[in-house]
# Entry
Amino acid sequence: MFQDITPHILNIGFSDRQASDQDYLVSYKDGKVLVRTGDGAIFPSVAEIIELHRIDTRKLTYLFDMDGKGFYLLPDILAETPGLQYHGIRFFRDANPSWLCFGGATAVHLARWYELNRFCGKCAGRMINVKDERALSCPDCGLVVYPRINPVVIVGITDGDRILLTKAANSEYTNYALIAGFMEIGETFEDTVRREVMEEVGLKVKNIRYYKSQPWAFSESILTGFFADVDGNTLPVLDGRELSEARWFSRDEIIAENAPFSLTWELIEKFRRR
# Structure
C-alpha cells in the first residue's frame, strides 16, 4: 500500500532541529505544494530555495524526517520556475519515487493543519507553535490544538463467495470500491461499520472483523479496514445520494490489482485470493 516504504523510514516524532541546506523544503498554501516536475527529487532543497528566493529560514517549521532528511514547511507561495511548479495533493498518487510521494502527502496533511489553525477557534487570537511538542497554542486564551486525523471505516461486505462493490455518485472516481464513511462522535468502529452499511446500502451485517489500517493524507484520515458478513437480506437499497451502484461480485469477476495502492483494493484483493 501507499505507506509501505521499506527500507525507507518515516520519523514523524516532534523535533526542534534546525534546517540544513540539504533538507527538503515544502512550500504550501491554499491546497498547492511546490514540487519538481522533472527527474530527481520531488521537493527542492532548503539551499536551492534560499538561492532562488532569499527566504527567511526562521519561518520554516519542522514536520518530520525520512531517512534522516528533514521536511520543513514554508507557508508562502514562491514564484514558479520551469522545473518547480505548484500542484495539488493528488500529484503524489502518480509520481515517483513512491516512498517520497508518501512523505509528500504526509507533509501536505500537516501543512494543511497548520494553515487551517493560524487563528484561535475560541478567541481569534494568532496561534503560535508550542516549543516542546507538535501543537499550536493561543497566547491570549491558552487554547491548545493538536493535528487532526479523521477516522474512517472501509468495509468489505461478503456473502459467502461474493463481495459487495459500489460506485460513488457524483464523484471523479468512477471505479468500483467498498462501503466507506467517517466515524461519528460516540461510536465504536463496529458501530460505524453497521451504521454506514445501513445508510448506504440498507443491509445488516454481522461477524465484523478488523483487517488493517492506512494513513490517508488525501482526506486527512486514518482508514480502518474491516470485513463483515451480510446478515439476512442481500438486496442492496440505495438512497441515490452517496452511491450510484452496488453490486455483488464473485471472485472470478474481480479484476486483479497487482500492486494495491489503497486499503480498499487490498481488502478486495484479500477476498479475491482466498
